[in-house]
Amino acid sequence: MKKLVFFFIVSILSLGSVQAAENHSLNTTVAESDSINLMAEASLFFEAYKNKQFDDWTIEKGFNIINTKPDAFQQYHLLRKLDKVIWAVHDDSTTSEEHKKELADTVLYLYNIAVKYDTANAGNYLVRRAYVLENWLHAPADTVIAAYEKAFATGQKITAKSYYMDRLGQLYAENASDDNDYQMKALNIYLKLSEEEPDNQRWIQMISSLAEDEDQLLDALKKSWESNKDNTEKAWAYAIQSIKFQAWERAIEPLEYLVEKHPDVINYWKELARAYDKAGMTDKAISAYKKLIKLQPDNRDNYLNLALIYKNIGQLAVARSYLHKASKVSPDWDYPYYVEGTLYEQAARECGFDFEDKLVYLLAIEMYRKAKNMGGQWSSQAAERIDALKNSIPTKEDYFFRHYKNGDKIKIKGKCYDWINKSVTVRF
Q1: CA distance linking residue 157 with residue 155, whole number of Å
Q2: pLDDT at 221
Q3: Could you give the CA distance from residue 321 to residue 368 in angstroms, rounded to a whole number?
Q4: Backbone angles phi, psi at 425, to 5 degrees
Q5: Measured between alpha carbons, how far is 387 from 382 in angstroms, rounded to an integer?
Q6: Which range has the worst mean pLDDT, 17-31, 155-169, 219-233, 404-418?
Q7: Is the CB of residue 24 less than 8 Å from the CB of residue 7?
Q8: What pTM value is reported for the model?
């Protein structure tokens, strides 16, 4: 193994601890500016880096530059490249355990400099510092946890963030006790990861392992929110997990808080409207969807969802008016036509099976046929409804006895259908 001869490492290691490396004064290791030819050292370092010469010599050249002028060559990402070289040497199978310890202290010293001079990338340096403390130096859990927390507290974009969040989550889970809130912190991490990566089953498994059952998890989330009632992130975590478990009544309280706190946030209103609807709070669901329409007049889903609510409470005319508004926003959408067909089918089914009722079934088929011909998502379902109703429409004999000819238009009338105000065409 090459012996490290550059002066900075002797200074650090003589202090004898990780903490000393972190607190080491930069001024004690800065060389006289006229003793180093910066351009020559930079040329040697970048050439070695380009050729993937990742060894102690390259590290020495990098620190000759940094200890002389810490902010030199930042446009070429000197600090990040030196970091990569140190990691490569550390992970090399030929590197001794003793030297790995030296490299751990060295990279911590580098991060101490980097967060000052490459501030835009501070979050990445800090999270890698936490990883080094955890896996290279096996520092105490509380020390590592604090290091990860400091990194995430920057709010900066962190490369492979979910990986490091998972590491912190595991540390919380492994060190949870009655004397700390690590279990709740671990839950919050995996809830956030589950929200960001809903298809990653690991996050769901971790959530399940941290809570004995759904109620315990929701109780814990509610308690966490109530301990800091003005924390919108905690309110949202409680709400979204309640929704995932279809605990609609539980979701309503935090969602009502959120829309009161942030009345123009569409996603909060969307989930609240859905929770009201699922919980059977129809009037409040209608009001919430009408609020959404004001916030998003060009969103077709809000009109459609409102139409479905009115359909379910039997206000078919109002339901149809909102279906037409949805179609106006999105003319190529087949679903409003499909649902309109269900309105006519529902009306006929609730009224009887006379000639007028058969005409309404025919009207339903016409709407289903329109949805089917659009070739959209609801095409196959529309075709199924057409086939299901084929024996419910007027027969040729029904038309003959009433003196209707092929091509005639018949206006739909009757006490059940005064809201329809449509005609159907005789075809046989």
Answers
A1: 7
A2: 85
A3: 17
A4: -105, 135
A5: 9
A6: 17-31
A7: no
A8: 0.63
Q: Which two tokens stand for residue 145?
A: 């946890």
Of the pLDDT bands very low, low, confident and very high (cuts 50, 70, 90), residue 361 is: very high
Contact (CB, 8 A) for 251 and 242: yes
Residue 223 to residue 242: CA distance in whole angstroms: 13
Measured CA to CA, the distance from residue 27 to residue 15 in angstroms comes to: 15
Query: Residue 409 pairs with which residues in a beta bridge?
Result: 425
SS (H, E, C) the chain: CCCCCCHHHHHHHCCCCHHHHHHCCHHHCCCCHHHCCHHHHHHHHHHHHHCCCCCHHHHHHHHHHHCCCCCCCHHHCHHHHHHHHHHHHHHCCCCCHHHHHHHHHHHHHHHHHHHHHCHHHHHHHHHHHHHHHHHHCCCCHHHHHHHHHHHHHCCCCCCCHHHHHHHHHHHHHHCCCCCCCHHHHHHHHHHHHHHHCCCCHHHHHHHHHHCCCHHHHHHHHHHHHHCCCCCHHHHHHHHHHHHHCCCHHHHHHHHHHHHHHCCCCHHHHHHHHHHHHHCCCHHHHHHHHHHHHHHCCCCHHHHHHHHHHHHHCCCHHHHHHHHHHHHHHCCCCCHHHHHHHHHHHHHHHHHCCCHHHHHHHHHHHHHHHHHHHCCCCCHHHHHHHHHHCCCCCCCHHHHHHCCCCCCCEEECCCCCCCCCCCEEECCC
Residues belonging to the chain: 428
Question: Residue 120's CB: how many other CB atoms inside 10 A?
Answer: 9
Q: How many CB atoms lie within 10 A of CB 200?
A: 15
Average pLDDT of 363-392?
Answer: 97
pLDDT tens, 72-92? Answer: 999 999 999 999 999 999 999
pLDDT tens readout for residues 312-355: 999 999 999 999 999 999 999 999 999 999 999 999 999 989 99
